[in-house]
Amino acid sequence: MKHDHGTGIECAACNGEDPQELARTFIEKSGFGIFGIFDAKPMFAYTAGLQELQHPEFLVFGLPLKVGASLLHYVYNRVKAGRSWVDGEIDTSWTVGGLPFAVRKADNVMVRQYVVQVDVYYERPVPVFQLVWSDRQGKLPWEKGWDTAFDKFQPVLYGALPAIVEIPPVA
């Protein structure tokens, strides 16, 4: 019997499938795959295959898996079409509950415990962007007024915001 943890998304591990074989199959057939971790607190999901497009993988926490998977499909399709994100960028073209998300470069050490299958697949640690969603007021975790009740759903795997560098005009 297929097991889905009540999410409506089939659980490959519970169904006896090899995660590495699934990653290989997903990447070969459709260009990428999504690993969703159903029983983690908080739940999370991440991509495997964006490295094939010379782009960091994506990781998202705390969203219902169907919503998280939809967001990861969206960013994959955008990357496939030539879009690239940078650390600190806020994206309003796809919203989580009508609110924007931000892209943050995940700390290379802290993120490893979450993206195990992608590291095993590539046989090395790969760069990962964390997709960070805003609270009900549209505030992001580093903004004044962020609702700290959401902290438990979205671990911080990134550092300080990148500095904005102003280049003086050439005289």
Task: Give your account of this protein's structure.
With 171 residues, this protein is of the alpha+beta class. Helix content is 20%, strand content 20%. It is built from 3 helices and 6 strands; from the N terminus they run αβββαββαβ. It has helices spanning 19-30, 65-80, 116-122; strands spanning 33-37, 44-48, 57-61, 90-96, 99-105, 128-133. It has a 6-stranded mixed beta sheet with strand order 1-2-3-6-5-4, with helices on both faces. It is globular, with a radius of gyration of 17 Å. The model is unreliable at 164-168 (pLDDT under 50).
List keywords for this structure.
single chain, 171 residues
- Give the tally of β-strands: 6
Kindly state the mean pLDDT as a whole number?
83
Relative strand content: 15-25%
Helix content: 10-25%
Please give the radius of gyration in angstroms: 17 Å
Structural class per helix/strand content? alpha+beta
Shape: globular
Distance, first to last CA: 71 Å
Oligomer: single chain
The largest beta-sheet arranges its strands as 1-2-3-6-5-4
Give me the strand/helix succession: HEEEHEEHE
Largest β-sheet summary:
6 strands, mixed
Low-confidence stretches: 164-168
DSSP helix count? 3
What's this entry about, in short?
The protein is α+β, with helices and mostly antiparallel strands and 171 residues long. Helix content is 20%, strand content 20%.
Indicate the topology:
Layout: H1 19-30, E1 33-37, E2 44-48, E3 57-61, H2 65-80, E4 90-96, E5 99-105, H3 116-122, E6 128-133
Parallel strand pairs: 3-6
Antiparallel strand pairs: 1-2, 2-3, 4-5, 5-6
Helix pairs in contact: 1-3
